[in-house]
Structures are given as structure tokens and as C-alpha cells.
Amino acid sequence: MRARARVIPAGLSGLNPGTLDSKGNPVNEIPIFSGDVKLDSTADVRGTLDMETTYAWPTSASGLLTPYGNEIYIERGVVFGDGVVEWVSQGYFRIYSVDQADAPDGPIQIGARDRMSGIIDFKPLAPRQFLAGTTVDAAFTALVGEVYPSAIIIYDFDATVTPFTSNHVMDSDRYAFLKDIVDSLGKVMYWDYQGRLQVKTAPNPANSVFTINHGKGGVMVNMSRSLDRADVFNAVVAKGEAPGEQQPVRAVAYDFNPKSPTYWDGPFGKVPTELTSSFITTTEQAQTAAQAKLDRSIGVPYSVDFSLIPNPALEPLDPVLVSYTGKRPSETHVIQSLTVPLTAQEAMTGTTRQRVFS
């Protein structure tokens, strides 16, 4: 196992950013003494980095480890027998804090956050109006581009022909405005491992991408589990605005799967929640947004905390199959959070929050 960190200027993207030396090794690579990358699908800033390095303390405002704009690109990899390393990117992280508890020669603790932190930090200096007919792509390009001029935005739909049907004003929160657009489309938004902003539908929770198995040949180290109905709902009411003098639009998505423990007409009871967005202007939009929110939360209120042999390619919202020893049935869960260690001694830990029923 290997991990590496390189300090790069802001705004780069891809799987090998920054300057390389004559041997193809990254310039400004800093040693990793300990640390991890935490990914959480429920957080506004999905990815955070905490690492300890033995690199030198910065001696000026332009120093490599100062929290004034530089980013850290993190990878975890496997060394094969021929010495070739297969790297898996963990993403780009803006340096936020640098601490040295044992100055002047002790290790340095670095705290960093993914690029969504820049969107949150850059509050609008004045309200801004987007007229009806403005496309989703135009709005994202303008608002994200003010923070990251070279940002790459990836959609799983044609955002260049998806217009606003009414006027909208961004007031005091850039992130909340963009999140409102995303919610109205039934999408999720996050910065990925290549430093790109993804706006897409969450993965189908029924299609597992990895098996977490117990026993001989398995990857599971240990796990715990719990049942808790707090914050679980089985219907989503999506509300929006209609143009002109029409009544505001509204749609409801229900858990109508009789095999689900949160079945709307079952013993779980009726527990609806609301989604309100000024970008929802048609009943079809409302239905799509409501169903997408319900799909990401439907199922038993069943939480699993696990630790396993690290698979750094896993991400939050990935569906995984949890396989037990013996004759116990396997279960499909959706990952909520992951902690990927940057040292060989630690297991990868994570949580799931949903279970899918056919």
C-alpha cells in the first residue's frame, strides 16, 4: 500500500495535476505521516482531509503549506510486484488549517476541505437576477466560474437546453441557490476525485457495485448495526411555484412497495416530509424531485457501521452488498459515509443508512 500527497495551485483537475520532474514524479510532494480522507453524502462539503506531515513549516505567506489558496491532491495506491503503482485519486482539498503542536520541529497537522467549501465561502456581494429562459448550464457556469474560472462541470442531462421557466434571484447564499436548482431536478451535486463538479442522479440503489463479505477470503474486519426510525420518512411532498396567476405546483411520491418496512399503508405509519423549491414550476418537475428524494431514503431505518480492508474506489451513495457467513441472507445497503486511511495500518470505516427491498 502507498499513499501520496502533492501541494498544487488552485484550479487544476484530472488524475495527474501539477508539475512533474524528469522522472515523472510529482513536484511538491509532501510526506504523509498519518491521516485520512472522510467522505459524507449528507454534508454540504462532502470531502475533508486530515493529515500529518513532516514537511517544513512555511516561513512566508507564499509558503507551500499556507492556507491561502493552495490545494492538496491525495492518492492511495497499491504497489505490484514489478514496482508499478496503481493509484486511486481521493480528490482535491483546499488547505484550511495548519497546526504544529510541538514547534519548531514537530509534525504538522493539516486540515483541508473539498472545493465545495469555496462555493460556500464566496457569498454574493449583491443580489443577482437570472431571467426566465436562462439555462441551468449558464447559471452554473456563471456562479461556479466566479469561484473557479477553470471549473469542469459534468451533467448527466443536457443542461444547455434546461431553462428556468421564471425569474430567480440569488440573494445571499451562492451554495444554497445552486443546491435549490439541483434539488428541483432530482439530482445530487459534489466535487469528484478528478476535481470536477458533478450534477447527476444518484446511483440506482438496487445495483450494488461491491460486495462486503465476511469470513474466509472476505474484506470485512468488523461491523455493528442498529435500527432507528428517527428521520425516516415514507412520502415526499414537493412544492414549487407556477408562472403567472396559476396555483403553486405540488406532487407527492409515496413508498408504495408492500415489501418495504416503511410501506405507506403498512404498520410503520405515515411519515411525510417536504421539499420546497422556487425552481419547481411544473407538476412533472415536482414529481421528479419528490421521487428522487424518496428513492435516496426509502427502506428500513437500518444503519450499519463497518470497517474493512480498504477499497479506495468506493464513494458515498454507492450501493453495496453486505454478505454474511452461514445461511444469513445478503443485504443491499447504500453507503452514507466513508473514512479512507492514508496509512497501511488502518482499516477503512464507513456507515450505511438505507436498505433496498425488491
Explain what you see:
The chain is mainly beta. It folds into 4 domains: 2-114, Pnp Oxidase, Chain A (Roll); 119-200, Phage tail protein beta-alpha-beta fold; 210-228 and 301-355; 235-295. It has 4 helices and 21 strands. The protein has helices spanning 116-121, 136-145, 174-184, 283-295; strands spanning 2-8, 29-30, 34-40, 47-53, 71-79, 85-99, 108-113, 128-130, 153-155, 168-170, 188-191, 197-200, 210-213, 220-227, 235-239, 250-254, 272-276, 302-308, 319-323, 331-341, 348-355. The strands form 4 sheets. Strands 1, 2, 3, 4, 5, 6, 7, 13, 14, 18, 19, 20 and 21 form a 13-stranded mixed sheet that branches. A hairpin with an 8-residue loop joins strand 6 (85-99) and strand 7 (108-113). The longest helix has 13 residues, at 283-295. It is globular, with a radius of gyration of 22 Å.
N- and C-termini, Cα separation: 38 Å
Q: Average pLDDT, to the nearest integer?
A: 92
What's the CATH topology label of the largest domain?
A: Pnp Oxidase, Chain A
Are there runs of 5+ residues with pLDDT below 50, and where? none
